[in-house]
Amino acid sequence: MRLFIQALLCLVITLAQQGSVSASPVRIKDLVDFDGVRGNDLVGYGLVVGLDGSGDGLRNAPFTEDIMTNILERLSVNVTGEQFRPKNVAAVLVTATLPPFARTGGQIDVTVSAIGDAKSLLGGTLVMTPMNAADGEIYAVSQGTIIAGGATAGGDGGQVTQGVPTSGTIPSGARIEREIEFQLSSLSDLRLALREADFTTAGRIEQAINRDFGRGVAVMLDSGTVLLDVPATRMESVAHALGRIENIEVEPERKARVVVDQRSGTIVMGEDVRISRVAVSQGNLTLRIQEEPLVAQPNPFAAGETVVVPRTRAAIEEEPGIGLAEIPSGASLSEVIAGLNALGVSPRDMIDILKSIKAAGALHAEFVVR
């Protein structure tokens, strides 16, 4: 892990040094979302059949029996009063995203997740399931064979699970039955919403669009919005104007940011991270406690009782310090990494050091911990 982190940091340093010379421009379509051009979330409640004994236990998941009864009755199969306890069915939630401008008859991918105590959805088939949007209307119907990404194996004495077998996907598993009403061609102005609000980036987008059209067609409203005057573009339609605008390249401005993942020990720093002059020292303190209980037993014919005498060994060990490592004022990313690596600490210790530097007010960047 340590070698991986060091290699990752070296890559970040290289990219930062290259970026300091000439930052790579980015297309506007990769920086903004066009107002109204968005997806819509869909959800459905359905039944998966054909499982190999890994379905819901109906005593623990009565809702599975209810939906199974409803489906069979819709198929003219009367099961009222019948007692059946199959282990090859499971109740699931089906989710998907309806993309913008999706048309009736198109197909989208769906995700299927068990909501009962099913052990695995591997090899199961989702029965026809209506999918609703937030307005309660049905926009798609899903059905198909589930592709699960995990596996479970075991016996009477133990069990092993790899991945998440209780969740899977159905590629092109839902067919669109209703379209979202949105008249793009009727818009006279359109807002470009920046995914990361920044006044400098918004200003550059405004300038790049106006420069490309040769006249004022865009104006920055705030750090996260640029307003486009569609008639001023003199294009055939709104779609033509957006097709031209989305490929214009802009050099975005990025915030100084340090991102830390405590679970894996990953540290990523942006090229604009700066640290004021500070001295750092690092050492480890180890506390060792060992229990060695002593059992005292009486002689075989003595009228005594066995007694457990507690014995504890406690010790504190402190590794010798390595002195102070100085990081100069206004240090760049490469200098920050070099200064921290000079301490010879592990990535997780480096995370603690960065937190302490931030707490001391010497780290001039947004500190994000995940």
Automatic annotation (TrEMBL):
InterPro entries: Flag_FlgI. Keywords: Bacterial flagellum, Cell projection, Cilium, Flagellum, Periplasm, Signal. Residues 1-23 form the signal peptide. One of its GO terms (molecular function) is structural molecule activity. It is found in: Bacterial flagellum basal body. One of its GO terms (cellular component) is bacterial-type flagellum basal body, distal rod, P ring. GO terms for biological process: bacterial-type flagellum-dependent cell motility. The keyword Signal applies. Belongs to the FlgI family. The basal body constitutes a major portion of the flagellar organelle and consists of four rings (L,P,S, and M) mounted on a central rod. PANTHER family: FLAGELLAR P-RING PERIPLASMIC PROTEIN FLGI, FLAGELLAR P-RING PROTEIN. Assembles around the rod to form the L-ring and probably protects the motor/basal body from shearing forces during rotation. This is Flagellar P-ring protein. It comes from Sulfitobacter guttiformis.
